[in-house]
Write a sequence for this structure.
C-alpha cells in the first residue's frame, strides 16, 4: 500500500517542502527531478504544476496533493478536501481572482464587458462567471504576464493577486472580485473511501496543521505569587487556558501557556506590572490544541 | 512613426538582448518591467511570451518580433518572415517537436496512437498532425514538465527537444518527429507593406545577421614572399577570396582574410610550414559578406 | 500620537533590525529608503547616521533613537538615556576612542602632542580633551580611513577601535584612551515628560532588554532525587532562584532554571556528577527577570 | 595550565566548529589563519590535517584532537581515545577503507594481489594488511583522486569511501573491506595521566556528547486526564521515563518527555486519539541522559 | 624621481582602475590596502577620498590625482588641471550641485533662502554662493543621505545629482543649479613646474585620453570597386578621413576608417546598398587622432 | 592513433583550460570528472596532479602533459621537453623553492641545518640538496600548510613561493633558494620518436605558443607622412619589422606592427610627437612570428 502525493511545482515548492519538514517528513528534491524522495516508505511523491494537480487526483493517477482551491474550480474537478492550509504568517496566504482594467477605462462592472476581449490564465472560471452574469465576451488564454496586456492587446484581464501591488504598478484598477482562493490538501474520492489511505491522510493533515499552528505561537512561562494569580491569569488570552502549578516556595505558582507571538509584546509589560516574574518565551515546533 | 518590436520573454531573453547589443542596439531591461528601453527612438520594445508572439503580430498589436517558427504554426498565424536567425555556436539553435513514449511502450508510430491520451504544450500542432494521419486520440494541454507525465498520466507526449537528453533521462524514446523549428524574425503583413517599416525591418535584419555571422569568424593577417604566394593562397578556405596587397619590401605580400574560427588551428601550422610569416588572428564584431 | 524613532544607518543597521525583531517588532527596510516600515502603528521609523542622531533628538525632530554615547558627547547633546544596550555576545559592544601613532613615533602621551597635527572623525571630542590637558595642537577632520594618514599626512590620529587589529595592521600603536562608548537608547527631554511617550518608551526598552537578556541565556531542566536536591541547588547560579517541583515518582524533584549560556559548559559536568539526570538545555527568545 | 587542542583542517572543519558551538565553545576561524580563537582561556586551538593529527598528539605538540581512527592506525600512533563521536544525522559518519578494482578485473580477493601494483593514501595500513595475508605487492602513495588511477596506472586501489558512489561512478567494484573508521576524540598518554588535563578532557567529551545527543531529539509536552493517563504513558517510548505532574485543575496531569524526533510523527496522532491535549514540541540544545 | 598619484576611493574606484588598465597601466588593489601597486616604477599610488584629494595635492603630499572639479572648488585648492576626463559612455559623467526643496515649498530661488537652514556636503560652496547673492542663511554640514533631511530637519538642501531621480523619489524639486562638475586629472603647481614630472603627467594624460576615445569607436574595413568608391567615401563620417588602398584585383579598393560605434548601425546598410563588400567591424583599445 | 594528454589538476587547471581555448581547443571539464572532453578526436585528456604528471609520462601511461619543471626534478623522471610555457602576464609564472626559517632563527645557511628537522612537500629535492652540501638533517614530508609548522613542529621548512608574501605573513624569512621552476609541456621519449605523435605535439606546441605570444602583444596601426617615415620607423621596436604601405593620398604611408603591450604606453607619446596620426591599438588572439 502506498499513497501517491502530488506537491506543487513552482512558487510554492520551497514552502511546501519546508512545511513537511516541520511536520516531521524529510522531502529531498534532486535537481531536475520531478520525483522527490520522502523518508516515509508509505508515500510516493511527485512534483506537479498547481494547475494540473486536481485533474490527476480526480483521474486517480495521484491519491492526494496540495494545490489552490481556484485550480480545482477551473478544472471542475471532483475531489475531496482533507484540510485547509491557510494561516497567518504563511506562504500559503489567500489570493483573489479579480477583473482588472486600466485606470482610465470605462469598464465599471461585469456588465460592461459585453463584446470585449479578456485575457486570463483561467479560461473556464471566467467563461462560467460571464455566463452566470449573462454577458458575452471573447476570453483568451494567457501564458503569463497577463497584467501588461491591457490596453494594447485586450480590454480587460482576470488575474490572480495577493496585494494588488503588481496591478497598481501597471496602472490597473480592480473592478470586481470573482473568487478567493487558498491552498488546500485534496484527495480523490476513492482514496477517501479506502480505510488505510483515509487514516494516512488524516495523520498527514494533523501533522501539517500542528506545524502550521506552531508557526505563529510561542510558549510563555512565568512565576507569580498567589495574591497576583488571578490578575495575571486575566491578562492571558482566554482561548487557551494556561497550565497553573504550585511551587514548593510558599505561595508561588508557575504558569505556562501557549500564546500568539503577535500579542507577546503587548502582554509582557502588563504581566510584569502585575507581579509576574521570571517571564521567558520559547519557540515551538508543533502545536496540537 | 515607430516600429513595435516584441522580444521573447524567458529562456531566450538574455541571448536576444546580447544579439541586439552586438548588432548595435542597446536594450535595457528593468527588473520586473515588460517594456525594455532601446537606444533607437524609432523602436518601442515589449517582452512577450514566445507562444503568444505571433498572435499579437498578426493582430497588429506588434509590428514585428522574434519567436520560434513552431509557435507560428501552432497558432496558424498569418505573419511574414523577415529573416532566419539560426547559426552554429548560437543560443538560437534548432529544436524538434517529437512524439515520445516510454522505452517499453508498444507505440511505434503515429498509427498506434488511436484511442490513446497525449499531453503536449502545442495542442493545435498535434491535433492537425493526427488529423493528417487519420488518427483519433485525446490531446490534452500540458502546463510544462510534460516528460514526467508518461506513463502515469498519459500514454504518450509530444514535446520540444534539442538533444533528447531530458527525454532519455526520463526513460523515454523518440518515435516520430513532427516538425523542426528555429527562431525567426517575423513581422505583420501590414508592416511589410509599409515602406518606412519595411526599410527599418530590413536594416535590423541585416545588422542582426552581421553580428551572428561574426560570432564564429576571425580575421587572419599574414605576410608571404612572392614565391610562396600561390601555395599559401591555396591553403586558405575557398569561400571568401582573400585581400592580397604588395608591400614596399621587395617581393613580399600582405594577405588578409576572414575565416571560420574552427579551421584556424588546422591551417596555422600549414601556413607557417609554407612560408607565411607574421600571422596574427583578430576577433570581429560584425561581418557583412 | 506617534513616537518618532531613529535607527542607526550603517554598520549597526542589521543588528538593530534583528534586535527589534526578537523584541517583537517587525521592521522592513526597503532598499535605498530611509523610512523603514514597522508593524506598530504608534511608531514612525527613520534611518539616521549614528553621528547625527543625538543632534536631531535634541532638536525634537526625533523623539528617540539608538546611537553611541560617544556621538552624544561629540555633539554635546542634551538628551535623556532610556536604557543601555550593551551586553555580551552582542553587536552592540564597547568601543574605545584612542590616540594612535606610528610604532616608531616619539609621542608617548597627550603632552607630546603640543604643536602637532592630528586627524580624527571626532574633532570636538579631541579638542576638548586637548584643552583639558592644556595642550595646543592642530586637529583636522577626517572623512574615514584615518589610520592610513600617519605618518605621511599627520603626526597622530584619534580613532575608534574595538580590538585594535586595524591599527596594528597599519603599524600603529595605541598611546592613550580618551573615552569608552557603547550603544544606548536615547530620547528627548520633551518626550520623557510626555506621559504617553514615556510609557511607550519604557515598554520598548523593556522588550529590547528582554530580547538582549535572552541572547546569552538558556533554560536548563533536570531531575534529581531528594537526597541530592540541596547539593544540586547549590551548584546553580545564585542569581535566579530555580523552580523546584516534586514529581509523582516518590522522592524525585524536577528543577528548572534560567542560566547564562556561558556557564552551562561549567555546570553540566558538575550537575551530572552530583546525581542530576535527564538534563536538557532549551533556547530562549525573551527573558524578563 | 593550557590544553592544546587540534581541530581537523578540511572537510570536517565546519562540522567540528559547529559541534563545539552547540557544546558551548565558540571557535572563531580567521581566514587563512591556522590558529582559531576559542572562548575558553584554558584551551589553545590549532588547525591540523586529519592525517597528521595523531603524529602531533603522540609527540606532545598537541594534547588532544579530533581525527579519524584510520589515521591513528596508519601512523601507528600511541594515543588515548577519550570518546567516540559517531551518531546518526551527523557529519561524523562511518567510512570504510576498501580494496577496489575495475568491474572487469580478475582480482577477487587479497590473495590475487600478489605481484600487483596498488595506489593508496594509507601506505602503512595497506602494507601491514598485505603482510598479515602473506601477500607481496607494490604499494605506492597517492596524493588524491586515487579512484581514477585504475586501470591505467595501477592494478588496484585501497580507498576511503562512505557510500561507494564515487567508486561506482568510476566503474570500480569493491572487493574487500580492510577496516571501518569514524571520528574520535583522542589525547596523548601524558595528557591522560595529568589530573588537570584528564578532568578537562572528560568535561569536553561530556559536552560534545550532550550536543550530539540533542541533535535528533525533541521535548514533547502534553496534558491528559487521569482516566487516560496510563494509555498515554504506554504510547511514549519506554527508554526515557516521562515526567508526570498533577495540575491544579482537578484530575489533569502534565507530561513531559524527551523523544527521538523521528518517532514524533508516529505518536502525535495516537496521543491525540487517546485523549492527550495541548501537545507541543520544543527543540533541544543539549541532552544528558 | 617618482610621481605620487592619488586615486579616488569609493564609487569611482573601479572605473578608475579600469581606465588606467585600458591606458596601459596595471593597478592592483589589495583588499583593505590603501596603497595599490602599479606596474610603472616611476609612479606611487594611494587611494584618497575624492573630497580630500585636492587638499593633499595642494600640500604636495601627492603630485597629482583624479577627482571632481567640485571638490577643488569646495576646498579652494590651488591646483593645476592636466586634462578633463569627461566622455560619452563613461562612468566619468557630469554631475550638478543643485538647490532642492520639497515639492510644496515656497522657496523659488536663492533669494528665498534668507534666514533658512540648509544641509549640504559642501559647506564652502554653499556659503560663498549665498554671499555672492547677498543672502544670509544657516548652512550645516551633512554626512550623507542629505535628501531625506528636508523638511523635517532643514528647509532646503544643496546636493549632488546626476539625473535627479533620487531627489524626485524623495518628493523634492530642483530650484537652482549652483555649479556643474566632472572628473579631472589635477596636479600641484610644483609638479607642473618640474620638467620631469610635467612630461610624465602629459604622457599619462595622453594615454588616458586614448583609452577614453577608443571606448565609443570601432574600426570598419570594407572593399569597394572603383565605380562605387566616391559614393562609399561620401557615406563615411567626414571627421576622420579614411585610409584608401588599391588592391591587386583590378579596380578594387580596400577602405579602413575609425568611426563612432553609434553610427555603425546607420551606415552599414547604406554601405552595402552602395556596393561595399566584405564589411567587418573590429574593436579598438586606444585611439589617438 | 590518439595522443594521451595530461592536464594539471588544481591551481593551474583553469589557466590551462583557458590557454587551450585561446589556442583553438575547447576543453570541457565536467564537475567531479577527471576526464575532460576536448573537441579534437585525436586527443584524450586526463586531469593529473602536477606532482604525479612526470611519473606517468615516463611510464607511458600518458604521452604528454603540462607540469612544473620542479616535479620532474623531484621524481627524477626521464621525459622530453616539447616547449617552455613561461611568459610575462601569465598564470604560468616562475616559482622558487626556498629554505625558510623564523625571523629570529639562528639558521643562516644550509650549513646550519646539521641535525635539524625540516618539513617540505619535496622530500627528494631537499634530501639531494642536503647531500650535495654534505649536511645531515631530518627531512619530513608535509601535506601542506607547511609555513605554520615552524617553530612549533620543525626547525625549518623548504616551501614553494612566488612572492614570499605568505612566508612573511607567518613571520618567516627566506635563507636560501634551492631551485627555480616554471611550467613546461613534456612528452615521453617514446612519443617523441613516433612520427605521428611528434608532428601532433609540435602542432599543439605551436598553437599554445601562438596564444601565449598574443597575450602580451597588440597590433598598432598608424599613418605618417613621407618626411617623418624614417623617424617613426626608428621608434618602433626593432624585433618585428613593420608593414609599410603607401596610401593613395600623396606622400602618406600606413604602418602596421605587432608590439609588446608593455611598450605601447612608452611609444605612443613619442610616435605622436614625431608626426604619427590616426594611431589605433587592436587586441590579438594569436601571434606566430
Amino acid at each position: 500500500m502506498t499513497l501517491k502525493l502530488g506537491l506543487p511545482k513552482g512558487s510554492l515548492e520551497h514552502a511546501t517542502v519546508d512545511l513537511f519538514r516541520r511536520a516531521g517528513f524529510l522531502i529531498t528534491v534532486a535537481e531536475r527531478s520531478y520525483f522527490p524522495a520522502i523518508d516515509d516508505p508509505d508515500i510516493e511523491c511527485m512534483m506537479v504544476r498547481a494547475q494540473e494537480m486536481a485533474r490527476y487526483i480526480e483521474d486517480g493517477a495521484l491519491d492526494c496533493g496540495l494545490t489552490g482551491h481556484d485550480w480545482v474550480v477551473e478544472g471542475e474537478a471532483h475531489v475531496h478536501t482533507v484540510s485547509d492550509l491557510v494561516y497567518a504568517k504563511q506562504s500559503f496566504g489567500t489570493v483573489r481572482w479579480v477583473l482588472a482594467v486600466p485606470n482610465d477605462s470605462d469598464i465599471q462592472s461585469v456588465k460592461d464587458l459585453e463584446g470585449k476581449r479578456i485575457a486570463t490564465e483561467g479560461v473556464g472560471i471566467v467563461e462560467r462567471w460571464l455566463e452566470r452574469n449573462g454577458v458575452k465576451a471573447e476570453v483568451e488564454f494567457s501564458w503569463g504576464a497577463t497584467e501588461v496586456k491591457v490596453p494594447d492587446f485586450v480590454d480587460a484581464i482576470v488575474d490572480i493577486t495577493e496585494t494588488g501591488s503588481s496591478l497598481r504598478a501597471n496602472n490597473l484598477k480592480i473592478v470586481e472580485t470573482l473568487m478567493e482562493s487558498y491552498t488546500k490538501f485534496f484527495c480523490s474520492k476513492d482514496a477517501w473511501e479506502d480505510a488505510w489511505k483515509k487514516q494516512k491522510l488524516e495523520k498527514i493533515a494533523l501533522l501539517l496543521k500542528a506545524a502550521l499552528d506552531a508557526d505563529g505561537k510561542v510558549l510563555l512561562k512565568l512565576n507569580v505569587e498567589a495574591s497576583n494569580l488571578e490578575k495575571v491569569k486575566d491578562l492571558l488570552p482566554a482561548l487557551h487556558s494556561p497550565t497553573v502549578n504550585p511551587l514548593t516556595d510558599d505561595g508561588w505558582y508557575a504558569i505556562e501557556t501557549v500564546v500568539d507571538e503577535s500579542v507577546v509584546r503587548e502582554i509582557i509589560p502588563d504581566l510584569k506590572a502585575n507581579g509576574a516574574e521570571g517571564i521567558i518565551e520559547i519557540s515551538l515546533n508543533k502545536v496540537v490544541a
Remarks:
- Chain E has a mean pLDDT of 91.
- DSSP finds nine helices and 17 strands in chain E.
- The CA atoms of residues 95 and 162 of chain E lie 5 Å apart.
- The radius of gyration of chain E is 25 Å.
